[in-house]
Design brief:
Length: 420
Amino acid sequence: MKRRFTKEENSWVLYDWGNSAYSVIISTAVFPLYYKASATEAGVSAANSTAYLGYTIAIATFILAMLGPILGTIADYQGFKKKFFSFFFSLGVLFTGALAFIPSDQWLFLLIFYTVAAVGSAGGNIFYDAFLVDVTTEERMNRISARGFGLGYIGSTIPFIISIGIIVLAQNKIIPIETVTASKIAFIITAIWWGVFAIPLLKNVHQRYYINKEPNPVVNSFKRLGKTFKEIRKYRSLFLFLLAYFFYIDGVGTIITMSTAYGSDLGITSTNLLIILFVTQVVAAPFALLYGRLAEKFTGKKMLYVGICVYIIVCIYAYFLETTIDFWILAMLVATSQGGIQALSRSYFAKLVPKQHSNEFFGFYNIFGKFAAIMGPLLVGVTAQVTGNSNSGVFSLVVLFIIGIIILAFVPEERDVKTA
């Protein structure tokens, strides 16, 4: 396997470098804490504000789940993939920056703008993921996908450090701005970082595999989508993998998006949460790359088993969480596997799909992932409200990982995919 990375591979990876800033600052770190403070000031209880955030994530993911396969099928036509990517990416950047202009006491409007930004980010990722088949070969997919996640973790630490620095300096009155203003600056930094590092992809990555344009593309796209459902037996391995993915990625995504809200409910300070999340990003980077290398030796499926087992341990340990040290241990366990499991899922799926229909099938990849992401936050939110204990909510996710690993056992090994 050649070692040098091509311009297309590097340009594709750089988008992960930029977009990951959104994932850590908006989805995971600064925004959830900013929202929780806003909701608390408005008199919303900790359990309810966590539940409302979970419901908001569910709404955003439902929107993308419904649109994903339809838009993906249309985007398989020549020249459409980059247009769709550009629209959703631009939507995400715009509304991420716009969060800075919402008054801090308007927690409901914060959730609305967050929803639109989340739709933009997740929508852009449908077509970004589908570009993997255009930028590299099957033999290199595990490594390139893992490199994207690995460098994404590294790249996201730069705006994260800057944002944390500004917030901590504001909290300690070292710089003459309020903490609220510092958080808003973080939103703007995220939008700029994300936008700048999307430029190489927009410039250098092109749709190599496509369907030739034809009249009535929307109507014909629905027909192709219907045909795919009718011929689903032809893609047994693919859809069996998606079913396993549906369950285990639900737990992964829920833990990522609700970790700071969970930590806040445990009484961990905002400063400690931000530091923990920063270290998590740093630790996750080499482990994502390691998963890619180990997948070449042991296969992607075996490494997915490893990642899922780690998350089962995380869910069990979360039930007994009491102290900041416990949360540190939990975060480091997550760091060892969150990038690897996502990267190998993406590359495994890319090897299964017909390349000229990559957008359509990554639309299904999205719908399975996003519908799963509805179930997880709802499960955590309902369990937290019923029990009055966030620990129980996280523990309830263990069943999703167990179901996922059982179904994954019936998916062929990568080397057998073509004949399965």
